[in-house]
Design goal:
The complex is a heterodimer of chains A (272) and B (402). Chain A has 272 residues and is an alpha/beta fold. Chain A has ten helices and eleven strands. The longest helix of chain A is centred in the C-terminal third of the chain and has 16 residues. Chain A starts with a helix and ends in a 21-residue tail after the last helix. Classes of the chains: A alpha/beta (272), B mainly alpha (402).
């Protein structure tokens, strides 16, 4: 190993994301419980778990949308609490709720959100049209997104998140509620984004999707990490052909009707 | 975290919010309808002030041509002449439409049915009393079911008989004195003459319009900010703003700016309408008016932000602002002068920034007050701005990334 190589390996940013004892408590409910995880640069990291396992809470903390109760985390080498603004410059988020204004056109939405990253108008316009072309929405670019189908909206939503070329992209259930065609399109888009060098953290409840896309998967339950490995290694370890069986083996087969301390009179604003 | 405000991004956010309003034609329609409705409603509820002039004997009324009836129980010449004068003056000054009834019972039945507002009875012996040099009395019954019209009818009847009475007195004094003394010297040695503060101020709307402007701008932006932020929180678009490298202050500024512009549009719509429909006149500088309204908004919009920080959803936030809005409307001296309220309520009224914004705006519009003249009001509004924002910004920050 040469000098230069050892330097780059020891530098902070050889991991895209690193957390140490990351914890989030809401009142008495611990949503994320001392999680240590590391996401490598350029990989698709499948983040799996039953409803209420803590996936979204963890992602929202990494996106600086929630403040951790304890523990630390760095994204792209920046501390999520102390250097929130540096983190925000380098991440893109596709969350469960679509981030777009129904009364703006597709292009206007992209221009609006792109401006928040201080991209100059001309570059932004070119980039937006390029991305719209990539997701085959050029004919609809001047139509209000309020009238779009879910699949079309999700395509806009995804390219909205990569306008500023983020190093790390968080995709929280990007194919939920989409028809098979749109699902296929979005999955291919995710692979394509990986090729373009984005690190991707992906949550999904569809195990084939996780299997197909992820380089590594992390299965989380009750706020704790149950396993992290490549899909193949996990399947081998549990001696099964499907990731779904691995998942059920790790998280149990009973239904998750109870959400622990989550069910309370208080509305969960800001958590989701 | 970038603490500084990025003005151009705040402007982008404001522009988008306004575009949203512009794109929703239905919302825009009601947005414009609201001040029109508010203004016309109150404009016609609050009648113009009667233009009475004691010097010329003109009475003036807010309720012209009310139906009353005359019951003549005396058939003497004097009684008939006075009845004729009453009918003539009522008609001339458009006070009453006078009918005649055969009996008090018949007249009372009509009043109970709602066809009459008052009954004037000239009792038996009326002419004889006057002929004998004794004062005589007319009797009056009014429809007591509506206190406002009742008191108007009563006082207008008295006013008409005062005119008839004074002309009789003038004649009597002339008869007795032979014209050497001015009869007015005997009847009313001292009279009061009115010099108006500003010529032309005649409508109570002159008082109401500035208050309504302040009310609309302040409560409009308060509710607007609360609604806009909590709606974005619920829709999920707030995440898009929060996940971008832009300070909370810029987001707040953008939201507040958009709502302030909306409030100002409605405020000036109210002013324009009250000028066209109700003859309100502006004596002061529009620029000072603008400054007052912007500062008025700033003084209270923080409360809207605090509410979104506390409220779990849009509906609750709206409810909370509504609860603040109503008392503000009634006790901040918008609908009636604050001096009319019980003492403790005056204190609450004076704790509302709306009171100072309305007060300043009124002084500017009616009295052509300079910035220096309304400085006390302005300083209080500035203090309010700092107080509310000091609480609101950290609370917003905490609520958004709890």
């Amino acid at each position: 190993m040469t000098m230069q190589e050892s330097e780059s390996v020891s530098s902070l940013s050889d991991q895209a994301i690193e957390t140490h004892g990351l914890t989030k408590r809401f009142n008495n409910f611990t949503a994320v419980d001392h999680v240590d995880l590391s996401v490598r640069r350029g990989e698709i990291y499948g983040f799996l778990g039953p409803n209420g396992a803590g996936k979204t809470t963890a992602i929202r903390m990494l996106c600086t949308l929630l403040t951790p109760t304890s523990g630390t985390a760095s994204v792209d080498g920046y501390d999520i609490v102390k250097q929130g603004n540096d983190v925000r410059k380098r991440i893109g988020l596709v969350s469960e709720k679509m981030i777009m204004y129904p009364r703006l056109t597709a292009l206007e939405n992209l221009m609006f959100f792109g401006r928040l990253y201080r991209i100059d108008r001309n570059t932004l316009q070119k980039k937006s049209e390029e991305l719209l072309e990539m997701v085959k929405l050029t004919p609809f670019k001047d139509k209000l997104v309020g009238g779009f189908s879910s699949g079309m909206r999700q395509r806009v939503n995804v390219i909205r998140a990569i306008l500023h070329d983020p190093d790390i992209l968080f995709l929280d259930e990007p194919t939920t509620g989409l028809d098979p065609q749109s699902t296929r399109f979005v999955r291919d888009l995710v692979k394509d984004l990986k090729q373009r060098g984005h690190t991707i953290v992906l949550t999904t409840h569809i195990m084939e999707e996780a299997d197909e896309l992820s380089d590594r998967v992390c299965i989380i339950d009750h706020g704790k990490i149950m396993a992290v490995d490549t899909p193949q290694a996990l399947k081998d370890r549990y001696n099964t052909k499907s990731l779904l069986d691995v998942f059920l083996e790790l998280t149990g087969r009973e239904l998750r009707d109870s959400a622990d301390g989550r069910i309370s009179m208080r509305a969960p604003m800001g958590r989701m | 975290m970038a603490e500084s405000i990025t003005w151009d991004l705040a402007l982008d956010i404001a522009r988008r919010d306004l575009l949203d309003l512009w794109r929703s034609k239905m919302l825009l329609f009601f947005f414009i309808l609201f001040p029109i409705l508010l203004m016309s409603m109150f404009g016609y509820i609050y009648p113009p002030m009667p233009k009475s002039n004691p010097n010329t004997g003109s009475i003036g009324t807010a309720f012209p041509n009310l139906p009353v009836t005359l019951v003549r129980m005396d058939d003497g010449q004097t009684a008939n002449s006075i009845a004729a004068q009453f009918i003539q003056i009522s008609k001339q000054q458009r006070l009453f439409i006078v009918s005649e009834s055969a009996s008090y019972e018949a007249a009372r039945n009509q009043l109970v049915l709602g066809n009459l507002k008052g009954i004037i009875i000239i009792p038996q012996g009326f002419s004889d009393a006057l002929a004998a040099g004794q004062p005589a009395t007319v009797q009056v019954t009014v429809d007591e079911t509506n206190p406002t019209t009742a008191s108007v009818v009563r006082s207008e009847i008295s006013a008409v008989f005062n005119i008839i009475g004074s002309s009789m007195s003038t004649q009597n004094i002339n008869n007795m004195d032979g014209g050497r003394v001015n009869p007015a010297f005997i009847m009313q040695p001292i009279s009061v003459s009115n010099i108006p503060l500003i010529t032309g101020v005649s409508s109570s709307f002159q008082f109401l319009a500035p208050g309504f402007m302040a009310l609309t701008v302040i409560t409009g932006s308060l509710q607007g900010v609360a609604t806009a932020i909590s709606r974005e929180k619920e829709q999920g678009t707030m995440d898009g703003l929060l996940v971008a490298p832009i300070s909370h202050r810029s987001i707040i500024l953008g939201k507040v700016a958009a709502q302030t512009v909306r409030g100002l549009i409605q405020g000036f719509l109210i002013l324009g309408l009250s000028m066209v429909l109700f003859g309100v006149q502006i004596y002061g500088s529009p620029i000072i008016m603008l400054i007052v309204m912007v500062l008025g908004t700033a003084s209270f919009v923080g409360v809207g932000i605090i509410m979104t920080a506390i409220a779990p959803d849009q509906e609750t936030a709206q409810m909370m602002t509504l609860i603040l809005q109503f008392p503000m409307m009634f006790i901040s001296g918008i609908l009636f002068p604050i001096d009319q309220l019980p003492g403790w309520m005056q204190y609450i009224g004076k704790a509302m920034p709306l009171y100072y914004a309305a007060d300043a705006l009124r002084k500017v519009i009616i009295l052509n007050a300079s910035l220096a003249a309304i400085m006390p009001d302005m300083l209080i509004l500035i203090v309010y701005t700092f107080l509310t924002m000091t609480v609101a910004i950290p609370l917003f920050e905490k609520a958004m990334r709890r």
